[in-house]
Amino acid sequence: MTTASSSPPLRPPRAREGGGDGRLAAVFIAPALLGYLVFLLWPTLRGIYLSFTRFNLLTPAKWVGLDNYDRMVHDPIFWSSLKVTVEYVFINIGVQTVAALAIAVLLQRLTQSALLRGIVLTPYLMSNVVAGIVWLWILDTQLGIGNEIIGGLGFDRIPFLADKTWAIPTIALINVWRHVGYTALLLFAGLQAIPNDMYEAAKVDGASEWRMFWRITMPLLRPVLAVVLIMTVIGSFQVFDTVAVTTAGGPANATNVLQYYIYGSAFGRFQFGYASAMSVALLIVLSAITFLQYRLTRAGQTDLG
To answer: 48-68 burial, b for 16+ CB within 10 Å, e for fewer?
Structure first.
């Protein structure tokens, strides 16, 4: 008696060795990669090359070696611009971080209203140029409503944007007003990751809100706060548009921040080689500051178990 030969067991078709997924991933990554290469990597490499040349758009770039960097080291306006920029960064970061942290904690501990979060974020939806123009009108010495109120209270009018002492702090506070809501929401998102059980256990032990803030909130928020600080410091060093529409670097270079000086050298005096050298110097400074911040704040580590 013959028996029918048994057919081999059915097996699922072999999955492709990731080839299809890899090609699909490449299709999605390609636009972002192309944008990165065209609008970031190539301009950066081109700028580094131009920093070693004399170039004014009208004639071919001429290699001059380190002449632009030697000029930069001996340029008093460059050092003045760097000093003004550092002053702006300290005021902006100091006030913005404290205010944003306070707002974030209040949103977390008192109310989590979506409407309130939207109101806090509203200034950030306005461009820097529009915010600068609005505050320029408000703070105008003669016609600004801010100075009208100050005068109505019996005080002398304050030339917020026309006085060397007031100009940089005023510009810094304008940008604090615009960015503090966004920074607060980033910190608020970090607070959401802290388990509420820790606060409840601390309350049972009799801890006050102030003690919980320093013993629970700050240690566990540190990685998010570190990243936010890195982002805001980088952004602050690149301040430009608020200065351009309010003071244009004046009075007497009191608000001539580094980015505005670079812009003036490139597009005002057509010294693209020298402007590129200053841009490379700014890139090096920001890279060093970012590295130090990352290491000192231990941004890649968390205290959450």
So the answer is: eebbbbbbeeeeebeebeeeb
> Is the model's pLDDT at 50 over the cut of 90?
yes
Alpha helices by DSSP H, 139-195: 145-152, 167-192
Rounded to 10 deg, the angle between the 218-237 and 167-192 helix axes is 140
- Tens-place pLDDT, residues 220-233: 888 899 999 999 99
What pTM does this model have? 0.87
The answer to whether the beta carbons of residues 89 and 233 sit under 8 Å apart is yes
Q: In the numeric block, which tokens belong to residue 191?
A: 């607070």
Bridge partners, residue 63, by sequence: 53
Cα separations in angstroms, 21 against 7, 24, 72, 292: 33, 5, 50, 38
Residues 190/191/195/200 CA torsion (nearest 10 deg): 170
Report CA-CA distances (Å) from 167 to 128, 133, 150, 158, 234: 16, 15, 17, 11, 21
Q: How far apart are CA 127 and CA 124, in angstroms?
A: 7
The pair of structure tokens assigned to 223 is: 């990685």
How much helix, strand and coil, in percent to the nearest 5, is found in the chain?
70, 0, 30
Rounded Cα distance between 304 and 193, Å, is 9
